[in-house]
Amino acid sequence: MLDNTLPLLTQGYAWLPDLSRRKGPGPVRTRLLGKPAIALRGPAAVAFFYDEDHVRRRSALPEPVLSTLFGKKAVHTLDGAEHRQRKALFVTLLKDVAGVAGLTRHVEEEWERTTERWPGRRVTLFDEVSLLLTRSVCAWAGVPLDRPGEAARTAHDLIAMVDGFATAGPRHWQARRARRARRRQEARLARLVEEIREADVTDEAARDGTGREPEPSVVRAVALHRNVDGAWLDPRTAAVEVLNVLRPTVAVTWYAVFGAHALHRNPALRKPLAANGAGYARAFAHEVRRLYPFAPFVAGLAPGDVDWQGERIPQGSLILLDLYGQNHDPGLWREPYTFDPERFSGREPGRDELVPQGGGEASEGHRCPGEDVTLAVLSTVLPRLAQLEYRVPEQDLRIPLNRMPTRPRSGFVVEFTRKDHHG
Fold first, then answer.
1. Using the 8-state DSSP alphabet, how is residue 168 labeled?
2. Rounded Cα–Cα distance for residues 143 and 139 (Å)
3. Which of 23, 141, 256, 315 is deepest in the core (most CB within 10 A)?
4. What residue spans define the domains of the chain?
5. How is the chain split among helix, strand and coil, in percent rounded to 5?
6. What are phi and psi of 318, to 5 degrees?
7. Mutual orientation of helices 125-141 and 150-163 as an angle, nearest 10°?
8. Treating both helix axes as pointing N-terminal to C-terminal, what angle do 371-387 and 235-250 enclose, rounded to 10 degrees?
9. What pTM value is reported for the model?
10. Rounded to whole angstroms, how far apart are CA atoms 337 and 158?
11. Predicted confidence (pLDDT) per residue in 297-344, tens digit
């Protein structure tokens, strides 16, 4: 079989669905990155993919993804006990240390501060939302943004890491910018980790007899986290994992702008979303994540010869879980290319049914533990956006499927009147 790496990079999200249509029902065999590959989809495929007896992540991610998106030695690259122990850190962070509710409070406060400046202005939502989410998540995580312009620089770097992970041709410069952005932020956060560790030794002595405890935070919890061997993460790896809290939160910008796009295309949904009734915002958020493209697929390696429903998969083969194809599969979704939040009215999607951020169990498997963050932030931001009064001027709102990750070409420009924009 011909290697399909170049067609993937040039066709983007359309590559695997087109390949599947030509192949017909069942798994799709191809080659990527010089390796034999097989692409699967459907709830049973999700359960198969997230079983470590079938798929391993170590060494599966190509270098460009590690050097831009996830970072080297990140939790995404681990398997077995090491992965479970590191993953438990993230689950604890989101439940006990800072909590998703704490993040949404910061988002609410930053939204109010930001939108106060919007009346009478033309703004690009992508830029504005990325900055307000950066301010929110850094305040929540305990990462200072004290220097002039630091919030904007950090937002730019976090967006660059996401925007540069799947680049080819003329976009290779974006990948270079993404690598520089990651190096800057890793170095800065590694210094912060070292400062926290030095202060912790001092605080231990100062706390004798005082009972004084330092304020818990995401960055402090990562800095003091110990690996399976009982040692601290090296400062650079700790910085990578702090970024794996900051970066995906700011990446919700893509979905927030897709939500604005959905409102523009479906104006009748503005009123029920603005009312923020029981569960509607969450259903709307689910539908944004289902319909609009973000990750095309996730990949792992077969640790040995494995079997998928009678199909032999040789050791070392790439196994692809087709996220975009599954979220648009007419066998799972009625009218899959129609935006309809009512499909999630009164129900949560099954664990292995809706998979924009992967499937399986978040607590122990490879499913993104930040999925609750994504839903909470979208359920906070989108109803507030629907409550604002604005117009959408003429612009290029096309969402090219050959760009990964994609977004409306214009970044979604809106114009606010000078009157009270809350109506």
1. -
2. 6
3. 256
4. 5-416
5. 55, 10, 40
6. -75, 135
7. 110
8. 40
9. 0.89
10. 30
11. 999 999 999 999 999 999 999 999 999 999 999 999 999 999 999 999
